[in-house]
Amino acid sequence: MPRSGTAVHGRARSAASASPHAMLAEELQLSELQQATLLYIERMSAELLRMAKSADMQTLAYFLDMTRRT
Questions:
Q1: DSSP E strand boundaries for the chain
Q2: What is the pTM of this model?
């Protein structure tokens, strides 16, 4: 499933202009609730990742980063 630089619903998107989850949500035509939930989880996992890194918890940071990216 190509993501960056492809036309999504008539608009061109680049990898820098939207998060991977936002792009995925549009490609899969998720409902507004699903898109909002996906965005919330992405933001929360990013914040938890920053917290884990600052506490020098590398393994937890790794898993949170994987969660954020999927």
A1: 7-8, 11-12
A2: 0.56
